[in-house]
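Translate sequence into structure tokens.
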Amino acid sequence: MGRKEIFDSGDDVHRLPILPSGFRDHWGIDGVLHAGIDYKIACQPLASAVTDELLAAAPGSPGEVLERLGTVGRLRSMLDAVEAVLLAEGLELSYLQDRQKDITDPLQLASIQKYGVKPGSEQVIRQNFVAEASLATRTTEYSTNARLLVAEGLRQLCPRTLEALLQGRSLPAARSR
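Result follows.
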């Protein structure tokens, strides 16, 4: 399965054995300070690889060009992993923030009673975050929702794969059956 098939799948988060938002056991488990430290550790390999690439001399042969293109591909996968961390953490933080919010606006209270929409429900928080993240990343909501599903899967089901991607290590090829 290629990258396009993964990110354009119509899969749903409820089909995977993923914990609901608010029950994380990886990034930032010990609070904001440790979450910041975890994030810095996660981004450090990308930052040093980008710095190395920017400070490198211009390639002088086709072999050096191919080597540098390999480095760019590795940087791209590292950037995708950082995006996955941010998406998963953003949803988590949105969920925690919106669950603690008390609604005092009379118009919101009236619309909650009339339409039965609960602003603190997981679906509403998820869709609000996906809408805002799609604006920030300049992608469609469908694509952002699919990338968020992959991000949650990486964070909760495949943390070693996420770590390998963050470090820029290549992953072993999937075994065919």
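Note: The chain has a mean pLDDT of 76.
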